[in-house]
Amino acid sequence: IYKFETKPWRKLGQGLSETAQQRYTRKQREKGERISQRMVAEALPKSPKAPLVLGLQPAALIDNVAPVDWSLLDQIPGDRGGSIPVQKDELEHILKEVNTHISAASFKKMAGGSVANTVRGLSVGFGVTTGMIGAYGDDEQGQIFVRNMGFSGVSISRLRKKKGSTGQCVCLVDDSGNRTMRPCLSSAVKIQADELNKEDFTGSKWLVLRYAVLNLEVIQAAIRLAKQEGLSVSLDLASFEMVRNYRTELRQLLESGNIDLCFANEDEAAELLRGEQEAGPEAALEFLSRHCKWAVVTLASKGCIAKHDKEVVQVSAIGETIATDATGAGDLFASGFLYGLIKGLSLEECCKVGSCSGGSVIRALGGEVTPENWQWMHKQLQLKDLPVPDIRN
């Protein structure tokens, strides 16, 4: 969970006297406690000023992140790498196995999910006002999610509390920084399409989405309302498995013309055009750019390629060549790229900022950037003559 520290990049509420800072933290904690007492499925009161960027994550998710060795991965159901859904009993079995193999100090529990990572990164690392739309359960995991996002400066007034369980995911990271993910969302509460309203979107500028066919109805409803309120829409392609298994639905969504910005990694790009004569990253970028104003294909350690109108750029990766943990790299790249667009930077500069923020998260375990690694990112921005966020106010 994000903790306040006196740093050059300090969050809202810092830079005050010690007593005032303690009072600020206490009020934030009390706010989180009041949330747990609200009626089922009720949204909290909106703040007077709408966040600049909204993230739709229908189901709140808690990441259980742990460093593991190959021997433990051999005992986990399914292949190494990728993301395979599991049932609650399977999740509990995996957590039990992990707890017997590693120390409690090595185990990290935090608000997770691609969209949550992106909006939290925008808030903490770039000082952009953000908010989350979704639902969380009336359990301990739900409270962890709300507190973590709220303490990170993300508006939680658009989250609905519901009776039931909050989603969880086990993220196992091997010595090479590769992750094996086992999400359990089958019993998790989530927001439904008919629970969204235009007031959720009024006044904001961007809506951040992650492709998931099981959430397609609520995604389409959110896009419709967002467009009515004048928002631009960003879409992440989620995983190569999701693209492979539900490519038809994805291409229909892209071809609707409602997606302004699309992010795909190299594997997702390959699946998007699988079976076609040209199926490389460049061909995927060309396909995406025909339907989206901005298209980006990330290439891991090789950087990224991006296109806007007729302009095409290629930018090298920034940071470690070997990741401590690749979890959240694409999500934080999106944070930086969106920040660049909001600031009116060029396409190449947007990619460079994204590479800096994506490089910051792979230096430590989990999808949440540590204070030290935010400082590292800001230093990289300064070295490359890119705008360094002023997030003191």
UniProtKB/TrEMBL annotation:
One of its GO terms (molecular function) is kinase activity. Transmembrane segments: none annotated. Residues 89-366 form the Carbohydrate kinase PfkB domain. Keywords: Kinase, Transferase. The keyword Secreted does not apply. It comes from the Eukaryota. The keyword Kinase applies. InterPro entries: Carb_kinase_PfkB-like, PfkB_dom, Ribokinase-like. Belongs to the carbohydrate kinase PfkB family. This is Carbohydrate kinase PfkB domain-containing protein.
